[in-house]
Design brief:
With 379 residues, the chain is α/β, with parallel strands linked by helices. 42% of the residues lie in helices and 15% in strands. The chain contains 14 helices and 15 strands. Helix 1 crosses helix 8, helix 3 crosses helix 4 and helix 9 packs across helix 14. The longest helix has 26 residues.
Length: 379
């Protein structure tokens, strides 16, 4: 692999989030860059406390304080809410932007999420434009998107796609969140065409538990399925063979790929080459002692809705359309095959393949969920 000169300073958004915190730690461990973290908070100490609370996690490599600079800011405000002098300083210092921040809500409309997910991206493009005006150089811009932008591809006649595919509102379907991510990619491609940024796009699929510890976060989209199975004492007979990857592998891959000299202009799909059977996690629940009966997907989904209407709502019910895609509810809710061959070739030319997402992996995940109290232990 040929790498570019590593950046001396980068800007990262979303560092207090699940994936963003991992990217922050991996930037510190894989590069010598100082990481400027945009954190939404009222004061510097509050922002720094939020960031440190996220990074002090047993799954993450320790990040020395001298490698971190907390930037209290708000991507929804003009100039990120920074003073002109601070904005100039930041623009001239950073040698890369990693945009991981997003408002993730699978039941909200495009209009409800557009300001954060599209408007926030425009605000960072404005920072890149300001940097170019000051330095005459475009900035490498690393955007963390999602393969959810293609969830509706089968409905528009696309059964499989690779890293060259371009998402649209149509491929994203009816859900607002993937629609906003597709729109953000569009405005970024326009900025790249103007020469404002050197764009690299990373599209994770389902980001699952840490491959080593089995620990996961509340943003793991598989959790609502597992907690619903435990609550109902049943699981659906069908579920997607999905585009998935362990959280730590996603994060390490983003940082590693960002250092390639051919990264600008490319898109990477951060999922295993072969789809993973989501019900493997349910099998691990059964091995751990959960007694679960099997139901057809439509019957099981109806039970989720009925359970939620009785005053104990299940998180899966609030995920609306995505829940139906997760269990392959019907012919209208079938995800396409999202290929990642070019990404894996770029990763593994001098990097060993990560551990398999096999039964032992899912056993670690269920054990960790029990230990954390996130998933109730079997009766």
């Amino acid at each position: 692999m040929t790498t570019t000169a590593p950046p001396r300073a980068v800007l990262l958004t979303g560092a207090t989030g699940s994936l963003g915190g991992r990217i922050c730690a991996d930037l510190a461990s894989q590069t010598d860059a100082t990481v400027h973290c945009l954190v939404r908070a009222k004061g510097g100490s509050t922002a720094a406390d939020r960031l440190r609370a996220r990074l002090d996690h047993p799954d993450l490599q320790p990040v020395p304080d001298e490698r971190l600079i907390t930037v209290p800011a708000d991507i929804l405000q003009p100039d990120l809410g920074l003073t002109p002098g601070r904005l100039d300083e930041l623009a001239q210092t950073i040698e890369g932007i990693f945009h991981c921040a997003a408002k993730v809500h699978l039941a909200k409309s495009y209009e409800e999420l557009e300001a954060a997910n599209v408007g926030g991206t425009r605000a960072l493009i404005a920072l890149a434009e300001h940097r170019r005006a000051l330095t005459a150089r475009p900035v490498p811009f690393h955007y963390i998107s999602t393969l959810g932008t293609f969830v509706n591809c089968r409905a528009v006649g696309i059964d499989a796609l690779d890293e060259t595919a371009i998402p649209t509102r149509q491929t994203a379907g009816r859900m607002g969140y993937p629609q906003t991510k597709a729109a953000a990619e569009e405005v970024l491609r326009a900025a790249a065409a103007r020469g404002t940024i050197n764009l690299t796009v990373y599209r994770p699929g389902l980001v699952l538990a840490d491959s080593r510890s089995g620990n996961t976060s509340q943003s793991d989209l598989l959790l609502p399925l597992l907690t619903a199975c435990a609550a109902l004492g049943a699981y659906p007979s069908e579920a997607i063979y999905g585009p998935v990857e362990a959280a730590d592998v996603v994060s390490r891959s983003i940082v590693r790929l960002s250092l390639r000299d051919d990264a600008p202009g490319r898109t990477f799909h951060l999922v295993r080459p072969d789809p993973v059977r989501v019900l493997d996690a349910v099998d691990a629940m059964i091995r751990a002692g959960h007694r679960l009966t099997i139901l057809p997907p439509d019957v099981w989904w109806r039970q989720v809705q009925e359970h939620s209407s009785k005053g104990r709502p299940l998180p899966l019910a609030r995920m609306s359309e995505f829940g139906k895609f997760l269990i392959a509810h019907d012919t209208e809710h079938q995800v396409p095959w999202m290929r990642s061959g070019a990404t894996w070739s770029a990763l593994t030319d001098d990097w060993p393949e990560p551990d398999p997402l096999d039964s032992a992996y899912f056993d670690r995940m269920i054990t960790a969920l029990h230990a954390a109290g996130t998933l109730p232990p079997p009766a």
